[in-house]
Amino acid sequence: TGDEELHHFYEVLETIGNGGFAKVKLGRHRLTGEKVAIKIMDKKQLGEDLPRVKLEIEAMKNLSHQHVCRMYQVIETTAKICLVLEYCSGGELFDYIIAKECLTEMETRVFFRQIISALAYVHSRGYAHRDLKPENLLIDDNHNLKLIDFGLCGKPKGGMQCRLNTCCGSPAYAAPEVILGKSYIGSSADVWSLGVVLYALLCGYLPFDDENCMALYKLIEMMQVEPQDRLTVSELLDHPWVTKDFNIPVEWHSKQQMGNIDADCITEMSIALKRSRETTTQLVKETLRFSEDDDSTGSLELISDNDSCTCRTHG
Ligand SMILES: COc1cccc(Nc2ncc(-c3ccc(C(=O)NCC(=O)Nc4ccccc4)cc3)c(OCC3CCNCC3)n2)c1
Asked: What region does 274 belong to: left with phi over 0, alpha with psi -120 to 50, or beta?
């Protein structure tokens, strides 16, 4: 069963997060010792929102970027869906800032450039995040930010047709048109949320001298009530406040090429699967082709990138 499968590959340790339908536990991959975040969702509790989770899983398969949390594996059982996700050892950005009491303007700019890098990439892949907020920005062990979409929480009170988490989770970061239940353009709503995140980062937590305030107020054009008056993410990439001291626009293209096969990973797998390297490589190639089709019924599922790989056999 899926539960055995989860425990076969991973030690499941303490809970690191709870969000309505999703519980996130710390996990450790038994083969590689790598820490992972395991997001466990109960299908019954998800109810009619199950299709939305399937959409998120498809989205995650297409998102591979240095500032977006990776998804390594999906383990589905009759009752649960478990996502095995990249673990960020530094926790949430906000806890970090509260613990440090204040960040320099430069450190704020470094983080902000990473956030717009992630957002420009997500938008370029045709997705809008729709729930950008400090809880969804985590720090990895290289002190870099990773965008996550912690996703579904309780049922929206108003039953609005926007995403659950924006309704019940965080009106504070949601654009006016989202709050008003109007139909909205996801990318513009993201820019509003980005403005709130930047404003929250700088206001009250960070020392900020006056002559720069004007540059910041120009950025607050992200928080124009009318979406068409708002800055776009691509205008932010080379905005004077964002490029100050860097003098280069934000590099947002993904540095992670998809689908490359890592030799060390093949070695580990051929040992674990008791197959030759050639056979293992062939299997992986077939699986990567399988994972491109929707109706993949492959005999071996693998999600691998440079530094880790997980494989599991179907039936
Ligand atoms: C050290 O102490 C600590 C303390 C706290 C945390 C950690 N680490 C730590 N690492 C990893 C996670 C995680 C990663 C991905 C997803 C996810 O849902 N992905 C799906 C996803 O990203 N979609 C998506 C992304 C972009 C575009 C579209 C879709 C969910 C959770 C985590 O969670 C804990 C929660 C706690 C409540 N606030 C949010 C994080 N925590 C460590």
From this structure: left
